[in-house]
């Protein structure tokens, strides 16, 4: 049971990390559109 729980956590973490990369690429490609959805992301990219 514990092992499968760890696997699920790892999958969730890798998914959220890849989502972060995707949103950063979107923010770079289209700052105006992404800034409305993810303001923090725009700040990180524009700095």
TrEMBL record:
Listed name of the protein: Uncharacterized protein
């Amino acid at each position: 049971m514990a092992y499968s729980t760890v696997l699920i956590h790892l999958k969730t973490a890798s998914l959220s990390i890849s989502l972060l990369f995707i949103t950063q690429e979107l923010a770079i490609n289209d700052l105006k559109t992404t800034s409305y959805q993810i303001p923090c992301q725009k700040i990180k990219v524009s700095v």
